[in-house]
Amino acid sequence: MAIAEESTPLQLSIADTSRFREGRITVRFRNGGNEPVRIPDEINDETADYFFLTVLRTERGNFRVLNRKVGKITFHRSLNYRELAPGQEYSVTIPVCLDEVDLEGWKQCSCELETRYYNRQGKDCFLGMLRATARLALQ
């Protein structure tokens, strides 16, 4: 099922891949609009896989999914939110699972890292999908 990307002032980028071999990347949210935007402030090592789908691809067409639990998560309490003012940024480091990736075998080709942020929960906050990509050298 294809999910259309909506026009939104909230932008996602992959800010830092220097810890990729350790199974961590940093993503950045930026409010590029003129109004405040709220996002759930609940992303941590236990919940990141419900918010993010991250894929590693090579120029040859090989790919590996690095997150596994994308879907709706149930919080048994009220959600905490982070409000981003216009122009404000917020970065968070998320885990990526490298268990099924032979990084040595991927060194000889150009790689692209793609992450998609999905938010299906919360009230009066950004609901939808954001996408970001980055080139990755596995040298």
Features:
mainly beta, about 5% helix, about 40% strand, disordered N terminus
Main sheet record? 4 strands, antiparallel
By secondary-structure content and strand pairing, the structural class works out as mainly beta
Number of strands: 9
Helix content: under 10%
DSSP strand (E) fraction?
A: 35-45%
> Separation of termini?
35 Å
Q: Can you count the helices?
A: 2
Task: Give the SSE order as H and E letters.
Answer: EEEHEEEEHEE
| Low-confidence spans | 1-5
Overall shape: it is globular
**Quaternary arrangement of the chains shown?**
single chain
What would you report as the Rg, rounded to the nearest angstrom? 15 Å
Taking all residues together, what is the mean pLDDT? 86
Strand order of the biggest β-sheet: 5-4-8-9
